[in-house]
């Protein structure tokens, strides 16, 4: 018996898993094709055989030689079978007539065990048994896969529960933070209320002192208020002119962007959104600035009214300390005015710098996009020419291969025709042997089916013992092997 090859090839498909054992001759031929062939030494008898085979024979001689070789093989096989039957008969007679000793019995048991093991290994080489093994392996794999799926489901459920727990904790933290913010807001509002109450109390106290001097100082107060209004109107006109200039600039920017976007609408969709955001930001900023300026003007008027009232109170006492306080109040007011103008100037400069940076950044982005588009176009042209060259080379190669393939097909056609003529002569004899072989194969199929059924029952029982689900075992039982 030829020793089985130790090398195996595992083929895994969607339906089954197969293990293939390549022939030893194939591996030898493969290794021989990769190594330099050593010198060959043959016997004289083999040399004579080679010379005899090298002699050119006719077709009739070839058929006679094939028939003779077939008869020799059949005769040799029949003689070997007869010798085997005689030896088995001799062993049976010797075993039946002689009493076995303990050692002989042990040797016999060991021999029977090895023989049974050898038969089992031979059974495993049957195609049906291999197919059965593939089904069993598939059942094991599916059982393992089902267990893994269940484990993944359990892990996913645990992850969802953990995520839900974390979400609950995060929501609780968020609610606590909101409560803390509300408490801080309440404290701030309460402090503002207390401050407002103190201020109202101080105002009431001052109003009581100013009632007597209100009429005398009314004309001066009106004059100061008129000056303040004139100043506020001048500032407002300046702000309106500035806002108008900014809006005009914004309109020009919008117009330029609109024309550019109309020309390159497909390439600059992202810029549209960016420009809208910038314009909206600037408009919102101007609106907020106007509101802040109005609030500041209102506060300024209120402060100057307060200063006028304080001055009236101070003039009531007409002492040196009152004059000094009024002078300090006037200086503080002038310092506040200077600081307010400085802040307005810095805000305007900052807004102008931001606008310049935005314009420069858009110009850089536009230039970079144009360069990228040009580089991409150049790359696409080069790739097109390279692809065209490869296509031409591929067409030439395919034409050369077609010529070679045509010649090979013609040679193969001639060879096949010669083989057909040779096989036609052997077909008559094969047909006669076919009917005899059919009867023998029918008996072998019945015996093989019984053997496969026994092996299948044994393997299914082993699957049940290792815990494979019963639905997969029943699926294997329903399989039919023919």
TrEMBL record:
What protein name does the entry list? Cilia- and flagella-associated protein 45
Record region (Disordered)? 258-300, 318-363
Question: Where is the sequence biased in composition, kind Low complexity?
Answer: 320-329
Q: Which family does it belong to?
A: Belongs to the CFAP45 family.
Which sequence ranges are marked TM in the entry? none
Q: Which domain of life is it from?
A: Eukaryota
Q: Where is the composition biased (Basic and acidic residues)?
A: 260-300, 331-363
Keyword tags: Cell projection, Cilium, Coiled coil, Flagellum
- Major site of localization recorded for this protein: other
- Any Pfam family hit: TPH
Coiled-coil region: 108-135, 172-222
| Every Trichohyalin-plectin-homology domain range | 122-470
